[in-house]
Structures are given as structure tokens and as C-alpha cells.
Design a protein that fits this description.
Distance between the termini: 16 Å
Helix content: 40-55%
CATH superfamily: 5'-nuclease
Number of helices: 6
Largest sheet: 5 strands, parallel
Strand content: 15-25%
Mean pLDDT: 93
CATH architecture: 3-Layer(aba) Sandwich
Shape: globular
Structural class: alpha/beta
Order of helices and strands: EHHEHHEHHEE
Strand order of the largest sheet: 3-2-1-4-5
CATH topology: Rossmann fold
CATH class: Alpha Beta
Radius of gyration: 14 Å
Number of domains: 1
Length: 126
């Protein structure tokens, strides 16, 4: 199964603090684990805000993901256009692009955000 990881899940993978239920998907070697370039962009933005509660080196995160066999999913024009057909259940632009990518790439989106279950996508809630 192709699994696109939500940004929070990526951060928990990097910190080795996965929520219950997520490990089975991450550790299953038959799954193809994907991360979006949008997630790296989101981490860069949040890191740039200088919040004391968010200290993540985006370059180190990227290197770690690629080094551990995760595949990067680039944002395409097709992904961006698909956002226009999604209902406005969720206003976060990062979550919306992740949803569009998961739909376009026939991947399941692994997340803890139950609002995302309202969309016509394969969402795996952990």
C-alpha cells in the first residue's frame, strides 16, 4: 500500500514518538512510505517562526527521511488543480494539498486529524 504521511506523523517518526497504531503502517515493509515536499515546506515555515516549542531542522528531517527509504512526492499542477474540487471541510492549505496528492496518487493519507476523514480520500486515522 502507498502511504502518504501527514506532517505531524513525519515529525513523530523523526522523534521516534509515533502515536499508537501508526507503527504498524510505518514498520510494514510491504508499504511504500511517501512524504510530500509540502510537509518540508510546512516545517521550514514553522521553524522560521522561531517558536520555542518547534525546533526542527528541515534539512536534517529531509536527509533522514530520504536516508531511511521514504519517497518524496513532489507537488504537481495536477495536485494543485485537484484542491479546487475539494470541499472546504478543512482550511489548512498544507492538509488540503496532502489530501489532493493522496487522491491523485492513489495513496492512503496517514494522519491523526479526524476532520480529514470527511474527504473523498483514503484516510487512515491513527
Amino acid at each position: 500500500m502507498k502511504i502518504l504521511l501527514d506532517t505531524h506523523i513525519l515529525l513523530w517518526v523523526a522523534a521516534d514518538t509515533l502515536p499508537p497504531g501508526a507503527s504498524e503502517y510505518i514498520l510494514d515493509e510491504s508499504n511504500t512510505l511517501l512524504f510530500s515536499s509540502a510537509s518540508i515546506w510546512e516545517v521550514v515555515i514553522k521553524n522560521g517562526l522561531g517558536r520555542a516549542d518547534f525546533v526542527v531542522d528541515p534539512a536534517l528531517l529531509l536527509t533522514g527521511l530520504l536516508g531511511n527509504g521514504y519517497r518524496q512526492l513532489y507537488i504537481t499542477a495536477r495536485h494543485a488543480l485537484l484542491i479546487g474540487s475539494l470541499p472546504m471541510h478543512h482550511k489548512d492549505p498544507f492538509d488540503r494539498i496532502l489530501l489532493a496528492q493522496s487522491i491523485a496518487e492513489n495513496a492512503s493519507l496517514l494522519t491523526t486529524d479526524n476532520v480529514l476523514e470527511k474527504y473523498p480520500a483514503s484516510v487512515v486515522l491513527v
